[in-house]
């Protein structure tokens, strides 16, 4: 299954109202020994949101952040609901 | 199925060598009437890669970009293979 079809499936399951949404997924797969490394994902996420807000007008309350960890994989998911009128 | 388990499944299927990888997925779901809007995803992707390169040392040849479109969903996938030694 492709990532696109996975996301399309998710979309069908959750989205009933036609809204504009932007979803950023940042998956960091560590090579095992990297667990002691400083975790830069939260800082990176803040910068990514700052970059995106140059393109689309986003409000802090429209941003949902979710972080999951399992084994060597760290997945940061940022969901942004876009306003009806873009900049 | 959660996104994490999807990515873990993908990982099991493809990764045999322990390498450090960073994957960015940018999914843009349009609200239907937005098809005529200028597509800012390629420019946004370049800026995102620039931000990430502040945190990790990446070479242009280690970046793989893939764009999929279906209906109102546009999915940009950026896969970055990280070098063994970070900055």
From TrEMBL, chains A, B:
Keywords: Cell cycle, Cell division. SUPFAM superfamilies: Cell division protein MinE topological specificity domain (SSF55229). InterPro entries: MinE, MinE_sf. It holds the Pfam family MinE. Coiled coil: none annotated. One of its GO terms (biological process) is cell division. It comes from the Bacteria. NCBIfam families: minE, PRK00296.1, PRK13989.1. Belongs to the MinE family. Prevents the cell division inhibition by proteins MinC and MinD at internal division sites while permitting inhibition at polar sites. This ensures cell division at the proper site by restricting the formation of a division septum at the midpoint of the long axis of the cell. HAMAP family: MinE. This is Cell division topological specificity factor. It comes from Leptothrix discophora. The gene is minE.
């Amino acid at each position: 299954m492709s990532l696109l079809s996975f996301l399309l499936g998710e979309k069908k399951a959750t989205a009933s109202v036609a809204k504009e949404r932007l979803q950023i997924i940042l998956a960091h797969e560590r090579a095992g020994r990297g667990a002691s490394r400083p975790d830069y994902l939260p800082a990176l996420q803040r910068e990514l949101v700052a970059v995106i807000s140059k393109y689309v007008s986003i409000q802090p309350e429209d941003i949902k952040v979710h972080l999951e960890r399992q084994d060597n994989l760290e997945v940061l998911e940022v969901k942004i609901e876009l306003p009806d009128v873009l900049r």
